[in-house]
Amino acid sequence: MRKPLIIGNWKMNLTVSEGVNLVKSIIDSGVDQLKVDYGFAPPFVALSEIKKYLNDSHILAAQNIYFEDSGAYTGEVSADMILSVGANYVILGHSERRHIFKESDEVINKKVHQAVKKGLTVVLCVGELLEDREAGCETETVLRQIALGVKDLGPDHMKRVVIAYEPVWAIGTGKTASKDDAEAMHRAIRGFISKLYSENIAKDLKILYGGSVKPENIKDLMSAENIDGALVGGASLNAESFVKILKFYE
Ligand code: PGA
Predict the structure, then answer these.
(1) CA 160 / ligand 1 centre spacing (Å)
(2) Cα 70 to middle of ligand 1, angstroms
């Protein structure tokens, strides 16, 4: 059984004190951690402060890292640095990193290797553009991103990877993939990992959906066999809506 996993990706939003207030009210709302693993991906500067309000079962994710251990890389943050403030997850390959900051599959792959080597769990984001979907090559695009993202990653390290399928046309647009379209892609991803690694690794792999997840669509999405959770952007910035999403099981 794959336990549901839901992470709020704050992107470049909220000051540290705004983030703390948000986290406090979400934790006070009594989400059942036996039913859902959940946590937050705040900006780097808020990680250590947010950590103070979390327990060991919560997820604290950074939104990025650089692939080198240390050195002359002005503006970058290393895996050891985020580990030192209590992060246990890192989001890599988010579509905003790919498209706005021009991160290539090769760079993302180096970051994936560095993160798992350091003991972090990776949320590897993949997703097609609207033009890919219109051209009917959405599955090919997504599976290629996965193949390049986990290239040369051994099976033990693959066990520390979560995949987030986020169709780019659904991120921040209010448009969500239908449950059937999302489920079809999640099934294709699991089948691909089964071939690339093994049936067991594929069976345990968590595949999250992301792209305009909100209280109104979470239950439907979570009812799909291969959708194991969500990466939530906009709706994770408001305590009421994120709590409703986290309590999808009610
Ligand atoms: P959204 O963002 O929920 O605001 O669409 C999701 C994401 O980019 O992870």
Answers:
(1) 22
(2) 30
Q: Is the CB of 210 under 6 A from ligand 1?
A: yes
pLDDT in tens, 175-184: 888 999 999 9
Homologous superfamily of the 5-246 domain (CATH): Aldolase class I (3.20.20.70)
183 with 222: CB under 8 angstroms? no
Q: Which residue has a Cα nearest atom 3 of ligand 1?
A: 233
For the stretch 10-21, pLDDT in tens is: 999 999 999 999
In the chain, domain spans: 5-246
Q: How far is CA 113 from the centre of its chain?
A: 16
Region 190-210: mean pLDDT is 98
Q: Is the CB of 8 under 6 A from ligand 1?
A: no
The answer for 6, left when phi > 0, alpha when psi is -120 to 50, beta otherwise, is beta
Percent of the chain with pLDDT over 70: 100
